[in-house]
């Protein structure tokens, strides 16, 4: 799986129960909150998305998960807002010289089912170029600009070198039978991985079936008014070719006035369906009820998505 944010851990947690050789490739362009502070202070890849994936792919007891995910209170001075897991990943990264090395150790410690790889071994800075030619630098600032994103790209945060994929990432993509992207923020969780040149080239050249799990809701500052076909077109435009084979689309309606706009203020309305547009993207469309409603939010049903991914993989084999 390729992505970041809170979307892919839901699917990874379900896929971990299946008889598959699972690899997660996770974005390292987050510069906000605890991850942003730690990457700036220690010159490491941001740990937040990696932390959530580590928990999703681990068989750690519930108490361990609660400890790992515990976030210090706003009144806790220098520790304010930091999850314990972020501090653990940061500490082991410093101790072992890289976040890649830290993840290998922590994966063994927490009995991770599969592999977790940062998309790059250095922190990356995300740049968004809007239709009006304005460029916004930094993942945490992009949603605040009132415009439509044209494209994004990444640079190394600490130097001017071309961003490189983390060791083993390209090999995993090339050896995979099925590659799953999403769900997750299109411009800030998925594309920061895809636009790394080595990863982009690997996605073009791999023989794997590439599956995109389309988002259920549009996102403020990123995909306002987007249809499912618009999501696919953006991905194809960034790679430079039609590389996605199959798209999973949720067709179950989110009830009117269901979303808690105070709790989930970044999500706007349900993604519109454009099946003719998807057909023109030359992708296979699997539409079903992938919806899970929880605490005023609309999420993917991880088990339903995982079952569909397994069917896709079995048909290919």
From TrEMBL:
Keywords: Cytoplasm. One of its GO terms (molecular function) is LPPG:FO 2-phospho-L-lactate transferase activity. It is found in: Cytoplasm. Pfam families: CofD. GO terms for biological process: regulation of cell shape. InterPro entries: CofD, CofD-like_dom_sf, Gluconeogen_factor. GO terms for cellular component: cytoplasm. CDD domains: CofD_YvcK. Transmembrane segments: none annotated. Its main location: cytoplasm. It comes from the Bacteria. PANTHER family: GLUCONEOGENESIS FACTOR-RELATED, UNCHARACTERIZED PROTEIN YVCK-RELATED. Required for morphogenesis under gluconeogenic growth conditions. NCBIfam families: CofD_related (TIGR01826). Belongs to the gluconeogenesis factor family. This is Putative gluconeogenesis factor. It comes from Pseudolactococcus plantarum.
């Amino acid at each position: 799986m390729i992505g970041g944010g809170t979307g892919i851990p839901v699917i990874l947690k379900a896929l971990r129960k299946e008889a598959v050789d699972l690899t997660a490739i996770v974005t390292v362009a987050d510069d906000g909150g605890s991850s942003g502070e730690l990457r700036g202070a220690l010159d490491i890849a941001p740990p937040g998305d990696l932390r959530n994936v580590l928990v999703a792919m681990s068989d750690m007891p519930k108490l361990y998960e609660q400890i790992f995910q515990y976030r210090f209170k706003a009144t806790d001075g220098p520790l304010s807002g930091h999850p314990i897991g972020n501090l653990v990943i940061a500490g082991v990264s410093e101790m072992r010289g890289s976040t890649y090395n830290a993840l290998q150790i922590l994966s063994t410690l927490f009995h991770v089912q599969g592999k977790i790889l940062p998309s790059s071994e250095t922190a990356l800075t995300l740049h968004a170029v809007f239709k009006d030619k304005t460029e916004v630098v930094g993942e945490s600032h992009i949603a605040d600009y009132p415009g439509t994103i044209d494209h994004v790209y990444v640079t190394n945060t600490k130097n001017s070198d071309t961003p490189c994929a983390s060791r083993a990432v390209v090999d995993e993509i090339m050896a995979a039978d099925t590659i799953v992207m999403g769900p997750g923020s299109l411009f800030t969780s998925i594309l920061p991985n895809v636009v790394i040149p080595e990863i982009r080239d690997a996605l073009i050249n791999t023989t794997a079936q590439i599956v995109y799990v389309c988002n259920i809701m549009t996102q403020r500052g990123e995909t306002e008014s987007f249809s499912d076909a618009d999501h696919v077109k953006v991905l194809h435009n960034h790679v430079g070719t039609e590389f996605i084979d199959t798209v999973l689309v949720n067709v179950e309606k989110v009830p009117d006035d269901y979303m808690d706009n105070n709790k989930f203020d970044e999500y706007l309305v349900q993604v519109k369906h454009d099946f003719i547009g998807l057909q023109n993207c030359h992708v296979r469309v699997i539409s079903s009820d992938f919806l899970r409603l929880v605490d005023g939010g609309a999420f993917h049903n991880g088990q339903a998505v995982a079952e569909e991914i397994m069917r896709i993989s079995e048909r290919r084999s």
